[in-house]
Queue: 2 jobs
Job 1
Amino acid sequence: MNTDAKTMLEIKDLHVYYDNIHALKGVSLKVKEGEIVSLIGANGAGKTTTLQTISGLIQSRQGKIVFQGKDITKEKPHLICQAGIAQVPEGRRIFARLAVKDNLKLGAFTVKDTPENLEKDRAKFYKDFPRMSERKNQMAGTLSGGEQQMLAMGRAIMSRPKLLILDEPSMGLSPLFVKEIFSVIKKLKEDGVTILLVEQNAKMALSIADYAYVIETGKITLEGPAQELLNNPDIKKAYLGA
Ligand SMILES: Nc1ncnc2c1ncn2[C@@H]1O[C@H](COP(=O)(O)OP(=O)(O)OP(=O)(O)O)[C@@H](O)[C@H]1O
Ligand SMILES: [Mg+2]
């Protein structure tokens, strides 16, 4: 962890309910500028709930979310997106009946810039992802699962996010594609994007992260530099299949 880095996102004591189910019971975490922070945990632990609350899709009952010094706790989702937070949701949700290139165009919906510069963003994406370039005109719903994940990430990148939030990007992908998706995440970090990564694949998530949190039934139970968690015997036993 880079201790000099500025905090980009801070969540303090977040409580979220679904009716009477207390899904988040005081979650606190920080994401520093330029880092990859992983949030790992079992099914139903509250990972997606945490991410959707950050994006404003779910309202918390208690707690605070601060992004770049601004309180966004009660902000509307589109304003949170405009502020620079982009989320790739679980299950991808690309526009299946639109071509790859049109999905990308929609990703830049909130960006105020010239058509030429937006075209440059897309050209860079196609250069970094030749597989997508070959499929520009293909209907997105006919892409493979891994390709759809790439497109979903591309669409989020087109909004020029400061913070990219990824919910289980490796889910359902073959080992080869998992590797490819993780190398994409690393590249994004090199390009200066800060990343909050939720993964069931704890090994991969911890191996690329700077810092990590473990969530269990709505509570953060452990946090630390990702490398430390990777070597923690309890984590090994519970999440790394050792
Ligand atoms: N819309 C909803 N209505 C009621 N309960 C919900 C809803 N969404 C989530 N929950 C519950 O909240 C808890 C946390 O769910 P969440 O989706 O955040 O878990 P998760 O860590 O993302 O799990 P997974 O790894 O399976 O995606 C679970 O017990 C879940 O059943
Ligand atoms: Mg989830």
Job 2
Amino acid sequence: MPAITPTSPTPSLEMLTAQLTALRPRMDAVSLAIHACPELKFAEFHAQALLSGWLAEAGFSLLLPAGGLSTAFVATHTGSRPGPCVAVLAEYDALPGIGHGCGHNLIGAGAAAAAIAVARALPDHPGTVLLVGTPGEEMGGAGKVRLAAAGVFDDVDAAVMFHPGDHSLTGRPGLAAAHLRVAFTGLSAHAAVSPWRGRSALAGVQVFLTALDALRQFIPPTARVHGVVSDGGQAPNVVPAHAAVDLYVRDRTAVSARELVGRVRQAAAGAALATGTEVDVSETGPLYEERRNNTVLAERFATAVRALGVEIAPGDPDSPAGSSDIGNLSQLMPVIHPYIQVAETGTPGHSDAMREAAATPFAHDRTQVAAAGLARVVADLLTEPELLTAAREEFTGARQDPRQEPRRELSGAAQHGR
Ligand SMILES: [Zn+2]
Ligand SMILES: [Zn+2]
């Protein structure tokens, strides 16, 4: 590692970049090792070990596991005097059947590199740098929601992360999403000898899906209601006693998504009534809230990224990303979730093509740029009190950005992450 001594209260971008260049071989090795061994939500032990081991070697103290999740961890670098607490977020879970088709190997390794770069470039920084390992983002795992509920973010002033993609954006809206299982229970019978003795749970599913399609014209155009039949019965010659649909109900706000869940419940109840079955509608995980991007911090990230030669623009407010548990965190504190292009424009997320892209040298070049952007924001938050003040003003609504929805009042439950 080159000997670099900070000469100003906040390190220059060149100093942060020099640290990241020194960290690059390890960053690539950690990222590729995670990529080669994809782990599903809450089973990411290999990734957790790789990332936390690197941070411990770099002088961070470890809390592992953390927040009641066995694959979460918190790595802490405590400064020489009091100051803000800034968290860099590392995701590292993969998708069933596709592996790292969302590129979380890059998120995890890039986040760790960013946190270590700040600690090295600013060894006697004020405040605290945290690297929070947040497992289970995919498949409704809601890792961040669970960690927030366990108090992991109680003392955090701001949280930053980046996400790989097919273009570079300072932020984009994310939909609120409820994750439902609609399970019908009927009565089994021989499907040919005495079907009238049975009540088909699969018929309940069919009527329910038809009712959902009948609803579609009358729900907001911003809403998305989609699912799969996760249980369609067991055998053709048995009237199915059990059948189920796994469903996501999304819209621009948690309030609107909740309202739609009420209508979906009515459709399910109607289907059960029509088919002589019973239905149970349950939430398979916490609701993902809509995302608020802190534009003050996102602009600071963008300035660094542009200085390193990557063009980045604000996202289209009418073109939302999917949904993520970062949304819930963004309701609790100033958060950024920018995107960095690592794949050819048009490469779909959650695809085989994105998985291949997430292992290329180009993706790692871009991840280094993103890590520099995150390191820039973290270092500035620690050393420039006005930046945190401005970010907080936007968050509380004292400073209104035209691209942001006004902050809605949070219930006590929401404040604790739900
Ligand atoms: Zn992702
Ligand atoms: Zn994803």
